[in-house]
Amino acid sequence: MPARPYQDVAAQAALLQESAEELYENAPVAYLSTLPDGTIVRVNETFLRWTGHARDDLVGRKRFHDLLPPGTRIYYETHYAPLLQIQGSVREIAAELLRADGTRLPVLLNSTLVRDEDGAPQIVRTTAFDASERRSYERELLRARTDAESRARAALALTHIDDGVLLVDEQERIQLLNPAAEAIADVEASRALGRRPAEAIAWWDAIAARIPVGPAAARPAPEVVAVSRSGREQWLSIVGIEAAGSVVYTLRDVTAEHRLEQMRADVVTVVSHELRTPLTGAYGAAATLLDRGDELRDDQRRQLLEMVFAQTARLTEIVDQILLASRLDTGNEVLRHDRFDATTIFELVLEAAPPDERPRLVVEAQAGGSVRADRDRLRQVVRNLVDNALKYSDGEVRIGLERRDTGVRYTVSDDGPGIPASEREQIFEKFYRLDPEQHGGTGGTGLGLYIARELVTRMNGRIGLLPRERGTTFFVDLPS
Ligand code: ADP
Fold first, then answer.
1. pLDDT at residue 20, as a whole number
2. Which of 124, 185, 347, 353 qualifies as a FRET site for 306, CA 20 to 30 Å off?
3. Domain termination site, one of 201, 220, 253
4. pTM more than 0.85
């Protein structure tokens, strides 16, 4: 498009009756001129329209600071006016003007001080921009920032708490999943978001019906449920709170607490059952001896005394096991690492076997060699395996020794009922016992194998079961 000649524009301005006066009066800014003492000498139409004042009430009658609310007035007198004196101008100061009806108009003020030839202040020219829109914009900005900050803080808290948090919306889609929930539910947020909980979380369906869900006011109590996570049992405390159409689920992994609780229950069972049996036996035998000892034959008395002896020995054994397990748990059991002839263990084990069981024991040592271990503790481990084999089977119990690459392997085998493959790891857990009915109600604490594994591990060895069609073979590998 060709440039318009200047005359054209001027002619058009004339056509629109644009004039300097018109521009001054109706400019989109308010103009105000005051004498150095603040007396208002001139204001434009815009100023009057914005503030609702009448020209006659202002000009020659009011001073600029009469139009300022107290806060702005103090600022005006302590900063604005002195700055104007010193600098000759003040720019972009946020202030408020009092309207005729008493309301306030937020403005941005700019002032220029005009001096005469001698430098004496003559007049102050002030322009005021309406800042109400800018203010609300700024307020909006501030609110958005505060919102964003509090959201960021909430997100930070959600990221770092141990409890899993899962937000499911009205459409049953996962909208939020914090890192703890990712770990507990074994799913990455990127794969879970937007999907239904049952699609994203492997175990959700199995427990969904049991999750208590209700409004916060109803304070639904969390339910403790067992779920399977990568093949392992995990206990979760879970509850859903309804809020604004969504449900916020809180998930807490209480597996450790549950184990502890279980262990406490097991201790009670062991103490009440396993200690009770020998106690009752010893008590009954001692009471009979006291009451009717005189009437009994020598062999009967001896039988009763042997019973007291055997039962108290069993009691000591159980108490020792409990104490040793607790020392192992707290790391207070110190082991030796001596090197000695591996076969010496057999003599010690055979010596300790009950005389009537000894014929069942067969030593099948294929090799000698040295072993590095704590002799007493190693004897205790092998003895425990032998005792179990004698206890849980009827036939022969074979004790073996063979040399391995970097050490030796002891084995203890029996032809008893065996241990199901599914239980091969669990039998080493504290207090774990296979169904006693399976062993004809044979007593035990379930601590023996736990202690054996702890001791062998501390001697830098390994204990486990060898796969067998029938019967059981335990092995203990130790370094030479
Ligand atoms: P306890 O013998 O006191 O019950 P252990 O920790 O020594 O405790 O053994 C744990 C469980 O492992 C036993 O209760 C038993 O069910 C099973 N077990 C151990 N050894 C054998 C074995 N030789 N044959 C069959 N089951 C066994």
1. 79
2. 347
3. 253
4. no
Average pLDDT score over the chain: 90
CB atoms within 10 A of CB 352: 13
Residue in 411, 399, 313 with CA at minimum distance from that of residue 354 = 313
What is the predicted pLDDT for the residue at 6? Answer: 61
445 pocket-lining for ligand 1 (C-beta < 6 Å): yes
In a domain, 141, yes or no: no
Query: DSSP 3-state assignment of 331?
Result: coil
Q: Which residue has the tokens 């029938």?
A: 470
Closest C-alpha to 324, from 381, 280, 241, 366: 381
Question: According to the model, what pLDDT value does residue 133 have?
Answer: 76
Residue 3 pLDDT greater than 60, yes or no: no
Any domain includes 146: no
Distance of CA 410 to the CA centre of its chain: 43
CA distance 62 to 48: 14
Give how many domains the chain has, as a whole number: 4
Which of 388, 434, 475 to mutate to test ligand 1, by most ligand atoms within 8 A of the CB atom?
388
Ligand 1 atom at minimal distance to the Cα of residue 451: 6
φ, ψ dihedrals at 151, nearest 5°: -65, -40
Q: Check pocket membership of 433 for ligand 1, CB cut-off 6 A.
A: yes
Whether 472 and 370 map to the same domain: the answer is yes
User: Cα(first)–Cα(last) distance of the chain, in Å?
Assistant: 100
Start-end of H helices in 230-297: 255-269, 276-292
**d(CA 424, ligand 1 centre) in Å:** 10
> Using an 8 Å Cβ cutoff, are 223 and 154 in contact?
no
Q: What is the CATH classification number for the domain harbouring 301? A: 1.10.287.130
Tokens of 225: 């449920």
The boundaries of the domain holding residue 192 are 161-253
Token couple for 239? 């509850």
Q: Give the number of C-alpha atoms closer than 13 A to the C-alpha of residue 238, restricted to the C-beta side.
A: 24
Least confident window among 11-25, 125-139, 422-436: 11-25
Reading the block at residue 301, the tokens are 């008395």
Distance of CA 64 to CAs 32, 40, 51, 80, Å?
9, 6, 13, 12
Q: Torsions phi, psi of 469, nearest 5?
A: -65, -50
Q: Report the C-alpha gap between 113 and 120 in whole angstroms.
A: 10
**The pLDDT value given to residue 368:** 75
Would you state the pLDDT for residue 4?
Answer: 55
